[in-house]
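Q: Got a minute? One more chain.
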Amino acid sequence: MMRYTADERTKRMVALIQQEAYDTFKATYPDLSSLAPVTVLITAYMEEANIGAVLERIPPTIHSMKIDTLVIVDGGDDATAKISKEYGAFTCVLPTNLGQGAALRLGYRIALEYDAQYIVTIDADGQNDPMEMGALLEPILAQEADLVIGSRRLGKDLTSDPIRKAGVVFFAYLTSLITRTRLTDTSNGFRAMTAKLLADIHLEQDQYQTAELLISAALRGWRVAEVPVTWKPRLSGSSKKGSNLTFGLNYAAVIAKTWLRDH
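A: Always. Here it is, folded:
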């Protein structure tokens, strides 16, 4: 009998849950043959108070390209999925909470298999402004970048947590050092990328995946750029990522693991 380590068992469990959600998505949208050229990907966990306000601000087109919105509901027992569907977003529901990274991987899989050309990720809590998506896509459409990160340090940070702000500066310096790419904001989940980039990189983090995607892309030679964006306080509720210390330690661990794996 084959024996699995605890880590291997966790990965198998996550993969099975993702597959269940993927199969349900396909059954829910049997007539869906492809997504729009620009697919906006949102992962949401217990965001019924915020998701509607985010969805209603996503425009139908950008740079003359049609937009589809794909919401991955990462478990939870509130009305996030119901509200997402009411706003017309393609909605895929994980039966249990797996973490933002695992939910994003599922979203990336759907986007790629349904022929999206450009993927924009945006938070479900209202901290990002959907009207700034055009600025994220501009360097990609100009063929100057393959991955574009929104930078609150180049733009405006309207939040007030000094420890979190210091962490943004520290991790940007560390990531810049190991990727040899000048970066100012590496923990911002507001970003745009090409489908080709997503198909090329390996992602495995179940939670703090922002650093993994960025470091993997940079180390594999994909062009990374930043544009100024506005970072706002959450519309309501609190972060699901834990305290500043928990977030910082886990984020640092992901940076180290990704660099050791990919460099």
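A: The two ends are 35 Å apart (CA to CA).
Q: Perfect, thanks.
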